[in-house]
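Workshop exercise sheet. Pairs work together: one partner reads the sequence aloud, the other fills in the structure field after running the prediction. Swap roles for the next sheet.
Pair: D.N. / O.F.
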Amino acid sequence: MAPLIEIDDLSRRFGRVAALDGVSLAVEEGEWLVVMGPSGSGKTTLLNLLAGLDRPSAGRLAVAGSELSALGPRELARFRRETVGLVFQEFHLIPYLTALENVMLAQYVHSLTDRGEAVEALARVGLEERLEHLPSQLSGGEKQRLCVARALINHPRLILADEPTGNLDEDNERQVLEIFTGLHRRGQTLVLVTHNPEVAVLADRVVRLEHGRVAAAGVAAEKRVLQVVH
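Structure field:
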């Protein structure tokens, strides 16, 4: 079976600047990959390409059998709706919609809304008591858990997360990481960008980017198991 993600000699240039320069990488279905590296190393650019939010300058990029560079705008939009769930450091929640409505909006963009399914998604991330709360009434950790519920609502094959714990305190970081750990145990494919080595050791594999190239790849030196509290 082919890997879920296949990247071969991938480059992305912005004028004379090479944000990515000849990256080759494969990610298996159900794998948790962490991408690390200094600021400006190409981490977010890689995630944007995987999400179909940007196009490569050269090279091959395939996700779930789709060659992304060959897709038109409408096909890319469908790919994003059906294949990818996105979690960002900035929450990008609609401020005048409740937690439940923010999740149901993601359903609507995909097809039809299902209140029961949205309630269940929020319950899975511990927000069953916050359904009618606006984003301004939620803590930072609750907002990020809401973002995870929103990303999962359409059952994507791939979750992409860019510094999802970067703005959280230690307790909220742990709660969010428990959710990712549970998803991984159930077979979800995760690609997560982070600067935090404490996050990296939860993953199956770590790739380090420097100057747009893969500088190192392998299993975290001391992989640890996070005990998920249900």
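Discussion prompt: The helical segments are 43-50, 73-83, 99-110, 115-124, 140-152, 170-185, 197-200. What would you look at next?
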